[in-house]
Amino acid sequence: MITVADQVVVGFSGDGAGAGELSWGQMDIWQAMVRQKSWLPNGVWIPLPAGTTVEELADRLRYVMSRYPAARTRLAFEPDGAPRQVVAASGEIALEVVDAGDADPEQVADELRLRYQHAPYDFTADWPIRMGAVRTHDVLTHLVMVMCHLVADGLGARVLFDELDVRSTAAVPAAQPLEQARWQSSPAGQRQNTSALRHWEGVLRTMPLRQFPESRDRRQPRHWRGEFVSYALGPALDAVRARTGAAAAPALLGLFAVALARVTGINPVAVRPMVHNRFRPGLDRVVCMLAQYGVCLLDVAGISLAEAVDRAQRTSLTSYKNAYYNPVELDDLVRRVVAERGGELELPCYFNDRTMLAQPDASAPAPAVPQLRDAVARGTFRWTTRQDIPFEPLIVHVDDVPGAIQATMFMDTHVISPADGEALLRGWEAAAVQAALDPAAPTAPPPTA
Hints:
There is one protein chain. By secondary structure, this protein is an alpha+beta fold. It folds into 2 domains: 4-174, Chloramphenicol acetyltransferase-like domain (Chloramphenicol Acetyltransferase, 2-Layer Sandwich); 186-437, Chloramphenicol Acetyltransferase (2-Layer Sandwich). The protein has 12 helices and 16 strands. The protein has helices at residues 24-36, 54-67, 105-118, 154-166, 177-184, 187-206, 233-244, 248-264, 305-321, 327-340, 369-378, 418-437, and strands at 4-13, 18-21, 41-47, 73-77, 83-87, 90-99, 129-136, 139-148, 223-230, 269-275, 292-293, 296-298, 349-353, 380-387, 394-401, 404-412. The termini are far apart. One of its GO terms (molecular function) is phosphopantetheine binding. One of its GO terms (cellular component) is cytoplasm. One of its GO terms (biological process) is amino acid activation for nonribosomal peptide biosynthetic process. This is Condensation domain-containing protein. InterPro entries: CAT-like_dom_sf (IPR023213), Condensation_dom (IPR001242).
């Protein structure tokens, strides 16, 4: 059981105060929070260097709260329930210190992270960052930090931690969320939104009505989370990229589309890839929630695996360009198209590639068959969570882990069965291995033995 031994009140102040509409990225993640009944916290704990003091940790927290307007952002709600962002000029926040006693401090740090993530969150009153420290016999050993997803997406969090490490004093980018929302309401922003929604409408009107076959195994609790760790996907992908010249993201996407078509039997395949949007002017170093899901439609029938990767490379560029839009207006568009197509249109699965894969050595020999088979045999899959609180129908997050690639799947068993969910991730690995050995192999499922 976690017992807070000390609380240090940390005062802060910073620029950028004001109130206004949510930016598109903020509204997108807010809608996900409403659907999933969660404030979608992201948490981490790290070991501290010997000799770290409480005062130093208070300075870290003050730096974060003062420097980044997103860390000082809370929500207010209009009478109709519409959220608005409110950025404070100053305030106070508590840094908690927990005594581990004789317990394992790493275990206590993880328990504190879970406590922060599971504690109730008030969007209108709470600061979106929670920070605490673990102390063992008067020595600080670990720092715990949890952030609401409204503060930052993955790349925004990376900027935050990079600047925190060096206490950057560089000017904060001007395009903070309040300014983003103002631009998005401008004629230029509305032109971007109109163009993006036109792309979405084209996909929504031509994609198959069903994205998944009827689930053959509806479970209670119905929403499951699974983890697949693959030691073969990385080297296989390197070989595919070296032989085709494809970038990592579209290669992963194309092979995922092949696996999805093989499992569901449905083609063309519609997928919603996460797009970070940081290639847009002035947004690359902003600590904020900027990423949004795009949409692409991939016909992978009757072609080679290499051609599937090439089509993903070409199609994904259009998806990236059109992944910057007003999500409220997208919802209106989806409702209209669903009604016009008979009310049975299933939306595509989400695909969030967070890997940072290096460019492969084109001169390196392709991995041998025994090497890839051994790597496949080392892979592991496990179900980690079963709950009634909803996830999206199907979302796959992809991350680098030491020596491997990890895919984390959130799914509704009333939409896709647990067996098909596992088969999808293992089939994704199998398609990559097959493409590494023979890029000319067909996308059709290989014959069973």
